[in-house]
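Cross-check.
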Amino acid sequence: MNTPKMEKMLSGQVALVTGATSGMGEATARLYAREGAAVIIGGRSADKGAALAAEITAEGGVARYYAPMDVTDENSIRKTVDAALNEFGRLDILAAFAGRTFDGEGLDPKTAYDKTMESNMTGTYNTVFAVVPHMKERRSGKIIICSSNGAFNPTTPAYTYHMAKAACESLTVNLAMELAPLGIRVNCIKPGPIRTSFWDELASGDELEGLLGGIARHEVPMGRIGTAEDIAGPALFLASELSAYITGLCLYVGGGIGYVYSHAQSFLLGKTPTGGQ
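Predicted model, tokenized:
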């Protein structure tokens, strides 16, 4: 029996993806475009943003990179949102992946704290509320916010970053409550350990491989580090009509982390793993 071909899940929709010039945001932007969305690429690097838009276009998709978008700068957020609305007249999806850690930059604690909160918490808040008024007016929209497994289920302490991500989960459930009657769904992805440039701030070379290998063996029930594509799939689900009756969900995507006991909670105590397989 031939299986009917599924239509592209995001055909005719316009999606703004922040943090789209690398990692999970980039993988999500590519997948959204393949599923028929016109993708607005939000990111600070003009070179990477323009290159990604050109690649998506060459593959038959629709993508725009208007200008550098820094979520710590409300004016740059507004410029990108306004440009999208001026060209397409609508924004159906916001996937907010922009965020980073500053642990490897040698900053004093106060500066690192301020930058981390501004990038991950305040930046997410400002991006969301640059889009929400338009979605309210249309009484339609999907918002996907990126948190972290570490917000409430850490494998290693990262106090400021995890505090900021916990705030993103609070934003998710509060927005979901307010916006549900207006036909707007708000959900959150909580990535486990995903191989992206995030880890470059913490270690490099053999040290990094050892760190990731230890986490995979002893902390992740599925026994492997995730990829950016592992996050893009759930981001597509939450942006599509397959999740039409879901809002306010904070979804762990980490190979079982958050739902299943790991082999040995070694990194919680900073001890050398002794158990597991």
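The chain is about 45% helix and 15% strand. The longest helix spans residues 109-138. Passed to J.P. for a second look.
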